[in-house]
Amino acid sequence: MKIAIIGTGYVGLVTGTCFADMGISVTCVDVDADKINRLKRGEIPIYEPGLEDMVTRNHNSGRLDFTTDLSEVIDDVEVIFSAVGTPPDEDGSADLGYVLDVARQIGSLMEKYVLVVTKSTVPVGTAVKVREAILEEQRRRGVKIDFDVASNPEFLKEGAAIKDFMSPDRVVVGVDSPRARKIMQKLYRPFLLSSDRMLFTDIPSAEMIKYAANAMLATRISFMNDIANLCDMVGANVNMVRKGIGADHRIGTKFLYPGCGYGGSCFPKDVKAIIRTAAQHGYDMRVLRAVEEVNESQKSLLFKKLLKHYGGSVEGKAVTLWGLAFKPETDDMREAPALVLIDLLLRHGATVRVYDPIAMQECRRRIGDTVTYCPNMYEAALDSDALMLVTEWKEFRVPSWNVIHKSMRTPVVFDGRNIYDRTELESDGFTYYALGK
Fold first, then answer.
1. Residue 249 CA neighbour count, 13 Å, CB half
2. Can you give the pLDDT at residue 196?
3. Domains in the chain, ordered, with CATH?
4. Options 28, 231, 266, 374, the catalytic residue
5. 28 given a catalytic annotation
6. The pTM of the whole model exceeds 0.70
């Protein structure tokens, strides 16, 4: 079976590589010639554990190829996945420009049946627009060629994307024809040999499932952050509260960890998009507007605690940030809390020293040399007036507090992920701030 993946970003590259690893012949297509040439040389433009080895192995075997020209492969493939970006517009809605460009390109080139599958996260109703864009190009050419459109949203967690794809907890596919359903069953059968976890729906429902899933997870995070903030005020311990409510099987423990706000490429964008989709239909997503508001406020919470600790001014203070990526095991800094904190600190006259195991280059690309990049976590804490844990990388879990205490100018720690023990740090001479405990 031969397929094409249009877009070699995070979703497209992981999807194409994992299909190739199962023996499917995959060609990844992208307009960025430099990126395609780098991929052919085995250079991966994103960080994802295990992906580089998989790309190299499958490219060398001939199962995974890269090109800038869809016309080279469109006659040979049965399925085309569209995995291009859907960045938010100024009003928060998803920009479908790239998605519709892909549809028009397919319509202008196709000479035989093809199944066009939208892998990008898109609003409900996008499949109708994709179908019409393809038909419009066919009408322009004066041809009528059969095709199907399907929706196959991705549910990949950055840092665990390969495992998520190779052993999915569910595969959601929206189709409106028996032929499309049969093709998608064949395509995913190698991933579901132990149990059938394919969920076939109509296309609008598949498009909505992705937004609803991310919105629910974002809601749990903001809810727990709200509870943590209240715990701070009433003297409760949010860790005990989290365990107490998580033990209820109706609730469970997933995504009930308070922190300094969610970020990344999915939750912020998708929450905005579903709010905007509802507004276009005359409906107000009140809960999700609150989720978004809580999250934006949460990103500045560590700064507010720092400001209070220093009596309302951080002018001239040196502040250390451990962690820059929005979560561990990725270099993704889209909507990262660290960016908000850095901006607030610099605007209020502080100097900032940072360390992240992976995301330093990405941070420099975004904000240049406005902060001091340090080679390790201990160097970052040198002569610091405050240490903020922003991303809970494994190497930050058990630091040598005695060494850090000696190197800091003022031993105060702001734990943005609640991973440290208050008693331990206070016994080592630190002033310790956490969230809700």
1. 0
2. 79
3. 2-201 (3.40.50.720), 211-297 (3.40.50.720), 299-433 (3.40.50.720)
4. 266
5. no
6. yes
